[in-house]
Amino acid sequence: MAITHSKFARCPTQERLIIMPEHFPESHEASIRDSHPNPYPGGNHRSQTQDEQLLNRSVPPMPRPLAPEMAYFTKTDSWRVMKMQSELIMGIDELSDLGASVAIFGSARIKPNDPDYIAAQTLGRMMAEANFAVITGGGPGIMEAANRGAFEGGGLSIGCNIELPFEQKPNPYLTRSLDFQYFFVRKTMFIKYANGFVIFPGGFGTLDELFEAMTLVQTLKIQRFPIILYNRKFWSKILGFIHETLLDRGLISPEDLNLLVVSDDLEEIRKTLLDCYFNRCWVTWKRSEGAVEHSDPPGAPATAMNPSKADAQ
Question: For residue 247, what are the β-bridge partners?
Fold first, then answer.
């Protein structure tokens, strides 16, 4: 089959050629496995069974070991949707047995001698000792530090890796490693299976996790979900923007910050996660950025008259 250059589409992000034929080649119809001679005399045709359609495939008219044009349908959105579905199933299968867990985020570029790396490693061990699984993005930097602490503390250390244009290798401190191609599937696993986020200094990816979690709390998609920032000095300008710009202009409400906590005390972070696990973040709210703005308290503890009230209300 002759394919002109107009049949190729260049993928801008991966710099590879994808063959996109406009239709199946005519020769496919005559291939030995795709031709279905009529087994009945007199012109009576029967319809193919689903198994026949699955097991019989088109082949090139002349033998050759690879025929990339045959796989063009795997580059379509319909096929991608099925890959997304299978990735969701894989993630749920792998993580559905988790009990208590915390997701720890931060920069992949932070080195082992950095104080934030050491703090994340210490926190990972502390949470393992508190019987929490530790979930990270599975890469280097803060992710490695948190996994390392959990691993060395004898806990469950989970890494959710993502396919990137530049290679990200899983760190060596994982007891369970998952690989994802789609960011939204990976992020769904973090939200679904963690009982809270601890966010160390990081770049765009770290900020993405922070503000997505805050949006889900604000819109009541998740409840009893503490979001803890470590290293107040690092986060001070972002916190200033939240308090002095977003709140002052009425773009968010004080109650939207009821589960956002800033702490440089690792023991306080551990207690915060335990409080939210057992007591619906009732004590945590008193230390939150929402309380600083005199927000209405979140849902009361289970002993109160209305324990069903959503945390962000």
Answer: none
Helix%, strand%, coil% for the chain, nearest 5: 45, 10, 45
- In our burial notation (b when 16+ CB lie closer than 10 A, e otherwise), range 136-156 reads bbbbbbbbbbbbbbbbebebb
Q: Going along 26-117, which residue ranges are E strands?
A: 101-105
Residue 208's domain comprises 99-292
Give a yes or no: residue 25 inside a domain: no
Query: How many domains does the structure of the chain reveal?
Result: 1
Query: What is the pTM (predicted TM-score) of this model?
Result: 0.79
The tokens 């002052």 sit on which residue? 248
Radius of gyration of the chain (CA): 26
pLDDT digits (tens, 9 = 90+) for 27-71: 444 444 544 555 555 556 778 888 888 888 888 888 999 989 888
Q: Is residue 246 part of a domain?
A: yes
Q: How confident is the model at residue 187 (pLDDT cuts 50, 70, 90)?
A: very high
CATH code of the domain containing 249 = 3.40.50.450
Distance between CA atoms of 11 and 1, rounded to whole angstroms? 23
Q: Is 50 domain-assigned? A: no
* 214 has pLDDT over 90: yes
